[in-house]
């Protein structure tokens, strides 16, 4: 049972080192995954979900004060 656990720990350790080789050894900057700060995502026309929600909220609030009286038409 202990042997299986040690083998699993070694494999997980190798996986972590293998996945982080660019960050740990080459000192490359970790890629920025936040849409608001990533220029490549902005050029593709992607924006963050929070910003989209705020834009839609402002549009909805702007048009919520308009009311139509169909009887007067």
Description:
This protein has helices spanning 2-19, 21-24, 39-43, 49-64. By secondary structure, the protein is an all-alpha fold. It has 2 domains: 1-30; 31-64. The termini are far apart. The mean pLDDT is 79.
Provide keyphrases for this structure.
single chain; 73 residues; mainly alpha; 4 helices; 59% helix; elongated
Number of discrete helical segments: 4
Task: Tell me the structural class.
Answer: mainly alpha
Radius of gyration, in Å, reads 26 Å
Record field, number of beta strands = 0
The major pleated sheet works out as: none
Uncertain stretches of 5 or more adjacent residues: none
Strand residue content: under 5%
Please write the string of helix (H) and strand (E) elements. Answer: HHHH
Number of domains: 2
- Shape type: elongated
Distance between the termini: 82 Å
Helix amount = 55-70%
How confident overall, as mean pLDDT?
A: 79
Helix and strand topology:
Layout: H1 2-19, H2 21-24, H3 39-43, H4 49-64
Give a short summary of the structure.
This protein is mainly α and 73 residues long.
């Amino acid at each position: 049972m202990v042997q299986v656990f040690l083998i699993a720990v070694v494999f997980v350790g190798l996986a972590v080192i293998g996945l982080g080789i660019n960050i740990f050894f080459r000192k490359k900057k970790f890629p920025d995954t936040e849409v608001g700060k990533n220029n490549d995502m902005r050029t593709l026309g992607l924006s963050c979900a929070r910003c989209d929600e705020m834009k839609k909220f402002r549009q909805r609030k702007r048009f919520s004060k308009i009311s139509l009286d169909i009887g007067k038409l």
